[in-house]
Amino acid sequence: MSRLKALKALDKIIGIPLMALLPRAGGCVIVPEKIKRALFIRPGGIGDLVLLLPAVRALAESLPGVDIDLLCEGRNAGVAKMSGDISGVFLYDNGPELLRCLRSGYDAVIDTEQWHRLSAAAAFFTGAPVRIGYATNNRKKLFTHPVPYSHDEYEVYSFFHLIEPLTGAAHSFDPDKPFLDVPEVIPERLSSELRNQRAGMVAIFPGATVRERRWGARKFGMAAKELENTGYKVVILGSAADKKDAEDIRKYSPGSADLTGKTTLEETARVLKACKALVTADSGLMHVAFAVGTPTVSLFGSGIEKKWAPPGKNHIVINKGLDCSPCTRYGYTPRCPRNVECLEAISPEEVLDALDGILTPA
Q1: Could you tell me which residues are beta bridge partners of residue 146?
Q2: Which contacts (CB < 8 Å, 24+ apart) does range 331-336 have?
Q3: Which member of 9, 145, 249, 282 has the lowest number of beta carbons within 10 Å of its beta carbon?
Q4: Domain 188-359 falls in which CATH fold?
Q5: Percentage of residues in the chain with pLDDT exceeding 70?
Q6: pTM of the entire predicted model
Q7: What sign does the dihedral 247-194-215-155 (CA atoms) show?
Q8: CA separation for the pair 9, 22 (Å, rounded)
Q9: Which CATH architecture has domain 33-167?
């Protein structure tokens, strides 16, 4: 069983009865005038934490001098290292670090998890006088400030709502302005693999932890072949788990650079910053590309476009809008009985046409 599945199972086994045992938060809690220490709790993947960064920045700017820590999982901790607004990072899936975090003493804790209950319990056990989180189920009883959650709102704005009790103001951001600062310099050790480019680099991320978000190596390969023929250097990104897809893509596009399993998250962000575009399904790297200012062509089906698709003028979403789509809710995607028709219906030609609209200067 994967660590993610284990955490979800643990939440179901322990989280539900824990909600019944823990006392309800008292009402009418006044936010102190001076918040010295705040903690964000962000379990989940890379994309969730990337989209939280504008709220972290807004809190830091609204409360000068506040010390902001983060409790997250090991799989998304790399994002925090690229943020200049986060002081300390504790791992949610590391017992000793979790206990150390709970004992650290905070004036306010913001739980950004959308559904599962264990993070709400973690917020409770910090003993913070102000605890903020989404009122999506009985987890809301543990928060002094429960906040409504909507699937019809881009996630950055949902995260903004969580800091409003502390800042006393609504917040916004410019979707056409990068909010993750990384150098636009390819790491030296990767430079030899990214040579021989005439028109620039286009990144491809073929991976997805959920089967219902996989477009398939064959279609990515067909698109990569046309890009290579046009003069672009195709860069295949991903973890070691995406190595087989990368090998299959390179059968169509032998000149592609396979960086799967070879880069840290920060190095991946730097490569994306240097690319002219990213082609991907609904994924964490899609959000990284958006954050560093790289245009995207994203393929949506099971995921909620309104909630997760990058906004802004340089981002194109391809979504067939089938009657069964979207089917994902609160991170859970049911097994597809239609052989992922929502993505299967998207052709490489459609992706290339969308890319042409981004890559061709107006």
Answers
A1: 133
A2: 331/44, 331/114, 331/115, 333/210, 333/212, 333/213, 333/302, 335/211, 335/212, 336/211, 336/212, 336/302
A3: 9
A4: Rossmann fold (3.40.50)
A5: 97
A6: 0.94
A7: positive
A8: 20
A9: 3-Layer(aba) Sandwich (3.40)
Paired tokens of 111: 């739980």
Q: Could you tell me the residue ranges of all domains in the chain?
A: 33-167, 188-359
Same fold, 33-167 and 188-359: yes
Give per-residue pLDDT as tens, 240-266.
999 999 999 999 999 999 999 999 999
Structure tokens at 56: 């972290």
Q: 59-105, pLDDT tens digit by residue?
A: 999 999 999 999 999 989 999 999 999 999 999 989 999 999 999 99
Q: What is the pLDDT of residue 8?
A: 74
The type of residue at 209 is: T
SS3 content of the chain, % helix, strand, coil (to 5): 40, 15, 40
Enter the tokens of residue 119. 């993070």
